[in-house]
DNA sequence: GCCGGCAGTTTCCAGATGGATACCATGAAA
DNA sequence: TTTCATGGTATCCATCTGGAAACTGCCGGC
């Protein structure tokens, strides 16, 4: 079962904060976001969990990290890959199911919801 | 965040055994499956977890339970609702993403994989 | 020489989760 | 009367997760 595509995918997106991080990276026009930028946007996330998720997403090819050493202080920047962008489109299908069959939550129909606004 | 459609949906399908139970209910032609039938098919699941998941799925409207009191011993039977069937179609989108971008696992392309064979 | 910002790291802790195992009530069959 | 099958319960326990809070190294500015 641990070799299963669906199982592995759910293991990725099912973890707390993962989708919120992906949405945050998708937001706005600038593709790259800095570590503390994400940290501030996600408000109550702890740096431990943020760095944990970012490393996992990097390992899974959903996010790329680049380090800017030309300016001081050195900054880390993160962006979605094509794979990560594609996953957000899949999440839209999940949302559609939820709205159609279960949670008729108006707050989630608009784009202001951090999690559903895709 | 706990009111979020995507979050709630992932909370449902992200739990261990949930999707396997849904797939098992979808398998074959008979819509209703008995408790011990599911238990045997899922092999290593414990009755505690199986009943836990079934109650959750019932509460979420993905599964219906009917009790047959006309025969002895009394049997409980479970079946997918329309909502549950629709969710399995969403899982297919997750699988497609996994196969396209990440896990090119041949075992998951065929229908023999319990988790991916939908 | 101290302070502050960046990007983390480290340690410890509490709660949730699932697994193992044993147990239970019912009623028919042997 | 014991045994069996069904559909669960009840208890205990190890593990896994994420949160809290403090700390680190680097360097530039004041």
**Biggest sheet of chain A, open or closed, and with what strands and sense?**
3 strands, antiparallel
> Uncertain spans of chain A, ≥5 residues at pLDDT below 50?
none
CATH level-3 fold name of chain A: Arc Repressor Mutant, subunit A
| CATH level-four homologous superfamily name of chain A | Winged helix-like DNA-binding domain superfamily/Winged helix DNA-binding domain
Question: What portion of residues of chain A belong to β-strands?
Answer: 5-15%
- The CATH architecture classification of chain A is Orthogonal Bundle
The tally of beta strands of chain A, per DSSP, is 3
**Count of discrete domains of chain A:** 1
Cross-sheet strand order for the largest sheet of chain A: 1-3-2
Instruction: Supply the helix-strand structural class of chain A.
Output: mainly alpha
Query: What helical percentage do the residues of chain A reach?
Result: 40-55%
Report the radius of gyration of chain A as a whole number of Å: 15 Å
* Oligomeric assembly: homodimer
The tally of helices of chain A reads 5
Distance between the termini of chain A: 30 Å
The chain pair with the largest interface is: A-B, 39 and 39 residues
Average pLDDT score of chain A: 88
Output the CATH class name of chain A: Mainly Alpha
Shape of chain A: globular
């Amino acid at each position: 079962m641990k070799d299963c595509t669906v199982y592995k995918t759910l293991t990725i997106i099912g973890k707390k904060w993962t989708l919120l991080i992906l949405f945050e990276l998708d937001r706005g026009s600038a593709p790259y976001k800095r570590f503390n930028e994400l940290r501030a946007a996600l408000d109550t996330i702890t740096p431990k969990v943020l760095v944990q998720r970012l490393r996992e997403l990097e390992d899974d090819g959903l996010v790329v990290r680049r380090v800017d050493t030309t300016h001081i202080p050195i900054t880390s920047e993160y962006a979605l890959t094509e794979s990560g962008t594609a996953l957000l489109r899949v999440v839209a299908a999940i949302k559609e199911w939820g709205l159609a069959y279960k949670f008729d939550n108006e707050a989630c129909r608009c784009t202001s919801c951090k999690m559903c606004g895709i």
